[in-house]
Amino acid sequence: MLTATPYPLPLPKQPALPHSFTPSNFVEFISSRSTTTSTLFIYDLAEQAGFGSLTKAWSKSDQDASSVVPLQTRAGAGLSLVGRLSQGTSRDALSGSVLTAYSTPPGLAQMMPSLACIPPPAANSRLILQIPTVSAIGDRLTLSPTLASLNPILSILPDSFVVILSATPQETVDFATLAYKFPAHVIHLFDHHSSSREVGQLHIPSLPSKEQVGGTVQSVLLESNYQAFDYTGDKNAAFVVVVLNGPLALALKARLANTPNIALLTVRVLQPWDEDAFQTILPSTVGHIYIVEDASLKATRGIVHVNVQGSVLGLPGPTPSIHHEALTPTRLSELLSKSSSLLQFLTNLPLFPSDVMSYDVAIGAKLLFFGTPGTPLSSVPQKVEKTFAHSASVSVRLLSEHDILSRPAGITADRIWLEPRRYPSTHTPLSVDLPISEDSGGVCNFLAVLDQNLLNSHNLLKHAKPDASVLMVTSWSVSELVSSLSAEDIALIRDRDLKLYTINADAIASQVGLGRAAENTLQGLIVHLAILRLYLGSLASEAAILKLTESLYGTSVDGIQMSTIIARVWDGLLQVELSTVTPQPSDAREPRKDFEFNAIIFTTEDGEVGSNHSKLGSWHEAARHLLFPSAFVEQDSYTYSMEQYPQIPALHPEIPDRTYLVTCTVNRRLTPKEYDRNVFHVEFDTTGTGLKYAIGEALGIHGWNDEAEVLDFCSWYGVDPARLVTISVPGDDTKVHTRTVLQALQQQIDLFGKPPKSFYSDLAEYAKNSVDRHTLQFIGSPEGVSTFKKLSEKDTVTFADVFSRYTSARPGIEDLCKLVGDIKPRHYSIASAQSVVGDRVDLLVVTLDWKTPSGECVPLSP
Asked: What are phi and psi of 277, to 5 degrees?
C-alpha cells in the first residue's frame, strides 16, 4: 500500500496543495494529463462543488496538463461536447480526441438531451464524464449525495455510454483510471459528498493512456479485480437489497454483512446492464428483492427497477417478489446521518426480517473539531491527521466540511477517525460513522471547539459521547468560560460526565513567540500538542509528545525549543470543574444553531479564505454582501427602520455613538488670502437627519485623509487600492466591516496621525531586520522616552513616516489597519443656535500648521 504522501506521481508544484491528496484530487490529476485527455471541459457546477480548481491551475502551470475550457450549465449544456466529437463538423473528430468533462448530477441531467445525440465512440474519439455526486437540496441548501436528478432521465442515455459508480476512496481512484480504458463513452459517478474527500491511505494505480483501450467492459473490470455487481451477506439469503454503489450502499453493507438470511447486492456498473452476471450472483434462495434508489418523488420508478425486474423474469423457479423503495434527497440524508433511522428503515420494509443486527463502530477513537475557517487554528485537524499518517500501528482518516450560512464567518467541522491497523477498515464514509445530526446523542470520544464564539452561536457539545474529553480553545478565564456556558451545556456536561479542558493558545504563543507572525504559527502547534496530550491520556508525558511530533516539527520551531513549548502547554492546559456551579437559566439567550453541511470549499475566487477576521479580498466579497445582505448584516442593524430618522447601519459601524450624514452647504473664508491665518465659516444642512443640539455643545466631524497622499502611500507600500479589506469592529470580534483599501486608508484609518508609544512596540513584532526590530522596541520601551518625545513633538512623525523609516517592518494591510487605528472625530464648538437657524449647524474654524525641522509644512488641524 502506498500512502498519498509523499506523492508517488510527478505532481506540479502549483497551486499550493494540502499535505496529502484526497481521492477526488487524484481524479483531477488522472483526468487532466495530456496523455489521458485531449481537452478538458469544466462546468461551473463542478467548481462550485470544489472539483476542478486544481485542474484549472495545472493547465496554466504544468506543461503535462491538458488544456481547459470553462463552461456554464444552461439549456443546451453538452452540445459543445457532442460537436467536438461529430465527424464533418469538428477537426477534433478527424484527428482523434478523448474529451473529459466535469459536472455534477444536476448538471449532467441538463446535458442528457444533448448526449442523446452523441456519435458512436471510437478508440481515439471518446467522452469521459467525471461526475462528483453532490447536490444542494432543500431551502437550506444542504449538500447531499443523491442521484435523484438523474433518475427519470438515465433511460434516454444512448447504449454507447458506460455508467460506473464508485463508493470507497480506493474505488474512486481505480474507477477514474478505468474510465479511460473502456471502449465507450463513460460516466463515472463518485461519492464527492464524503468518501472521495477523505484524507487517508490509497494505492495509486499507473496512469492510463488514451491509446490503452480494453476489449470489453467485463474484461476491463476483471483486469482490475472488479465486477459489475458486489454481493455481501448470507450466500443463501432469502431477502436481497439492491442499491447503487455509493454511501448508502456502504452503510447498508456494514449493517447487513453479518445478518443471517439477508444480503446486499451493490450495482457498480449501471450501463450496460449485465443480466447474466446479475442472475448468476443472485442466490437461488431469494424470495424478496428490495430495490432502493434515489428519486425526487416517492412514487418514481427508476432505471434500476426496470433492469432488475427484467432480469428476474428469466430466473428458473418461482419469481421473487420485487419491492421498490424510492428515497427522496431529504430522506437519504436522514438515513446517512442517523444510524437509528437506517435500522428503522430496514425493519419497516414489507415482510423484511425485524432481527437486523445493530452496527457497532466502537473500535478506534473518533475526534470532532469545530472552528472558524481562515484562522491560525483552522489547520489543527490537518496537523493531527499528519501526526498519524505514517504510523505503523494506527490508521487515520480525515474529512472536512463547511457551513457558510449559519454565521457570517462560517464554521468548519473536521472529523478524524483513528483505529488500530490490525482491524480491517469498514470503508463506511466518515459522515456515516461519525455523523453530525440535529438530534445527536453523542458520537465522538474527543471534541475540540477552536473558536470560543461558537459556543454562543451553535449547539456543539451534544456531539460528545459520555465520558468524552472536550477541549475549549479560549482567551477567557475559567470563570468567564463557566459564566458563558448555557444551563443546557452545563447540564449536558454533568449528565454525560464530560471532561472539560481549556487552553489559552494566544497567551501561550505570546509568552514564547518572537513576533506576531510567529505567534500565529505557534497557536496551531500549541493546540495540536494539547490534543495529543489528551489523546494519550495516562501515557502522556512531555518526552512522549516530543518524540511523537519530532518528525513534523523537529526539535525547535522559529528558534524556540519544542521542549519549552511543550512545557508551557503542560502548564496551560486546565481542567474545568463544574460540580459546584449552579447554572443560571437565561431567557434572553437566543436559540443556538446546528451545523449544516452546505459548502465543500470556503474560499473566494481569488483564493482568499473567507473568515470573520481582518483580511484582504476582491470585489466578489463586496458582491456577496450586496446580493445577500441578510446573510452578513445582523437584524439588529435594522432596528431603527421604524424610526422617523433611521440610523444608517453602514455609517461608521466601528464606533458605538450615533452618527449623522449632513451636507456642507457653505464653506467661506473670512480672512484675506494674504493673511497668514485661514479663518473660515462652515454651514451644514441637517434636514432629515434628526440631529439636535443645544448652545455650548460641540460637533464631532470625521475627517478624511488626502486622497493623493493615500494613493502615493499605496503605491509605495505595494498594495492595490481597489482591493477590499475586511476589518474587525473594535470591541466586537463577531462583527466586521468591509471597504476598499483606498476607502479604509482615506476615510477611516489615521494613517497620517501621530503614533502613540505602544505603536512602536507593536510594529517591532513585524520587523524582519534585526536593527529595525531593536530600534522600534527601544522607542517603545521606558528607556526610549526621550527618543519618542523627539519623534512625536519635534519631528511630528506620522504613522506613514514610521513605516517609511523602518521598511523591514511591513505588516499586511489588514494588520496595518488594526495597528494604526481609526481617525478620531475632531470636535468643534457650535457657533449657532438651533432655535434660530433651524436645521443647520454653523462652525467658525481656523487652520493651524507649522514647519518641521526638515522644512516640511505640516497641517496640525483645521
From this structure: -65, -35
- Residue 200 in contact with residue 390, Cβ under 8 Å? no
How far is the C-alpha of 350 from the C-alpha of 325, rounded, in Å?
10
Residue keyed to cell 508609544: 757
Q: Compute the distance between CA of residue 763 and CA of residue 761 in angstroms, rounded to an integer.
A: 5
Task: Please answer whether residues 528 and 380 qualify as being in contact, where contact means their C-beta atoms are separated by less than 8 angstroms.
Answer: yes
Mind giving me the DSSP string for 693-744?
--TT-EEEE-----HHHHHHHHHHHT--TTSEEEEEETTEEEEEEEEEHHHI
Pairing of strands 67-71, 39-43: parallel
CA end-to-end span of the chain, whole Å?
A: 74
- Which tens digit of pLDDT belongs to each residue from 122-141? 878 899 999 999 998 888 88
Alpha helix segments (H runs only) across 498-573: 505-512, 516-536, 542-553, 562-572
pLDDT at site 734? 57
* DSSP character at residue 1: -
Torsion angle of C-alpha atoms 800, 806, 808, 814, degrees rounded to 10: -30
| 693-716 b/e (C-beta count within 10 Å ≥ 16 → b) | eeeeeebebeeebeeeebeebbee
Q: Is the peptide bond before 23 cis (omega within 30 degrees of 0)?
A: no
Q: Quick one: three-class SS letters along 435-480?
A: CCCCCCCCCEEEEEECCCCHHHHECCHHHEEEEEEEEEECCCCHHH
Q: Is the pLDDT of residue 731 over 60?
A: no
pLDDT (0 to 100) of residue 413: 94
With bands split at pLDDT 50, 70 and 90, how would you rate the model's confidence at 679?
A: confident
pLDDT, position 612? 44
Q: Which residue reads 494604526 in cell numbers?
A: 820
Residue 193 to residue 196: CA distance in whole angstroms: 7
Is residue 509 very low, low, confident or very high in pLDDT (cuts 50, 70, 90)?
A: confident
In whole angstroms, give the CA distance from residue 244 to residue 484.
47
Tell me the helix, strand and coil percentages in the chain, rounded to 5.
35, 25, 45
Q: What is the pTM of this model?
A: 0.74
The answer, yes or no, to whether residue 700 has pLDDT greater than 60, is yes
| Interval 758-809: pLDDT, tens | 889 888 888 888 888 889 888 888 888 888 888 887 878 889 999 999 988 8
What whole-number distance in Å separates Cα of residue 585 and Cα of residue 416?
34
The Cα–Cα gap between 454 and 373 comes to 12
The dihedrals phi and psi of 54, each to the nearest 5 degrees, come to -65, -40
How many whole angstroms separate alpha carbon 215 and alpha carbon 668? 90
Calpha distance 216→149 (Å, rounded): 29
**Is the peptide bond preceding residue 6 cis, with omega within 30 degrees of 0?**
yes
- Residue 466: how many other CB atoms lie within 10 Å: 10
Burial class (CB in 10 A: 0-12, 13-18, 19+), 233: buried
> For residue 626, with 0-12 CB atoms within 10 Å meaning exposed, 13-18 middle and 19 or more buried, which class applies?
exposed
Distance from C-alpha of 804 to C-alpha of 262, rounded to nearest angstrom: 76
* Omega before 424 within 30 of 0, i.e. cis: no
Among 635, 631, 637, smallest CA distance to 610 is for: 631
Q: How far is CA 58 from CA 11, 31, 66, in A?
A: 9, 11, 8
Please tell me the distance from the alpha carbon of residue 644 to that of residue 653, in angstroms, as a whole number.
20
Strand-pair partners of 847: 678
